[in-house]
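User: Protein folding is very new to me. Would you mind checking the protein record under this note? It all follows right here:
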Amino acid sequence: MAEVEDDTKKYVPLTEELVREALRKDKGKDAQLVSWKYKDFTKKGDNYACFVTSVEVQYKEEEHGEPLQVTYVAKLAHQITSVFMDLMNEMFEKEGSCFIEILPKMNELLRELHIDSIRTAKGYCMSLKRGKEVLLLEDLRHRKFKMFDRRRGIDVPHALLVLKELGRLHATSRLLERKLGCSLHETWPIIIEKWLEEDDVPGAEMFQKMIESQMETAAMVMEKIPNYEQVVAWIRNTKPKGMDIFKQGLKKSDKFNALNHGDCWNNNILFRYDETGAPVEVMLVDLQGMRMASVAADLSYFLYSSFTGGVRKSNLKFFMETYYDSFCSVLRAAQVPIPFSLEELIVEFRNKMILGCISGMILAPIVLSEEEDVQAFFDMTEENMDTNNRERQEKILKMSKREGGQLQDRFLSMFNEMVEAGIVPNKDVV
C-alpha cells in the first residue's frame, strides 16, 4: 500500500484505488504509486458547485528508479442536506460523464479531421458512490494555465480565444450527434436537466426565490442612479418571471441546438500566456452545467457575465463573426451543411439577450466579489434562505458603493443595451 499523509484522511471520498487508476491512465500501466497527499490551491470564491483541491502523487516508472511527481485536480461533491442534494449529485455525474465519455468521443471525431481536440483538461477517473463522489482530472497548472482576474472584465484577446473554442465545442457536438444517429441526451440522459423539463422539481421554489432576490438587489442598485426609474420598474415587474425566462432561454432549439458549456464565465476559463503576457491558449473547465441548448445561450451567458460594457458593445459584431467562423470551420472540415447564417445567429443572440440580462444580474456581483463577499449558495436551506438572501443583498449593496463603481458600471451598460434592444422600455431613461 502507498504511503498516505495523515491529513489526507479528512477528505474521505478519495481512495488509493482511484489515485492508482488516474496514475495508470496518465502515465501508463507500469507506473508504480509510492505516496500521495492532498495539496489545496484554491481560495474561497474560486468554486461554488463542488470542492476543488489537488492530489500530489509520488510514483516510479521502474522498480528501482528515482521517484517522480505529478499532481491531479480532485473535485469532490459538496455533501449537503438541503433540497439541492439531488441536483448537486446530478451535476457531478454530468461533469464526470462529459470529461470521461462525451468529450473523448468528440475529440476522436476531430482527430479524424486532423483538427485539435476541444481544449479542456483530461479526465482520468470518477466515483459516483453516493456521499463519496470524486472526479480526478489533469492539473492544467503543469501546462502554465491560470485563471484570469475576473474583476477586470474579459478583454478582446481573451474573448476571441473563448469564442473560438465555444464555436468548436458546439459544432463538434453536432457532428457527434450525426455519428450516433440520435441526440446526445438519448445516449447520455444525465445531461437532461429536470428543472428545465419538469414543473415540480425539488428546489425549484428556492431557485425562484434566489433569482427574485438577486433581481431585487439589482433594482436596489439601479435606484441609486438618476433617471433609471423605468429600468427599476422593469426589473421588479420581471422578477416573478425570472425562472420562466431561464427555462425558456435554455430550451433546445433545433436549428441552433448544440452541447453548451452551460456555465461559461470568468471562473470557469483558464488561459496560457506567452513571454510577453499575451494570451495564446484557452481551456474550458468546470463542465457541470453542460446541456443541450441554443448556441446563443452560451454566448449570451458569457458576454453578459464576464465583460465590461464598453468591450462587449464595441466588439459585438466582431465577436459574433469570430464565433461563427470557428463554428463553421469544424462543419466544413467534415463536409457537413452549416445550419444557420451569421445573420440568423445575430437574431438568435438578440432573442437570448434577456437570458443574458438575468444571468448578468446574478453573476456580476459574484464576478466582482472579494473573498469576504463570497456566499455558499448551496448551503442554503428552506429555513435559512430568507436570512441568506438578505445578507447577500446587504453585501452587494456595500459592493456597489466601493471606489470605482464597477458594479454600477456593469449594470448601467447592460441595462442600456437592453433599452436599445427594446427589451426594457426606454421612457425616462437616458
The longest helix spans residues 85-112. The chain has 14 helices and eleven strands. Residues 5-9 have pLDDT under 50 and may be disordered. Residues 20 and 33 are 6 Å apart (CA to CA).
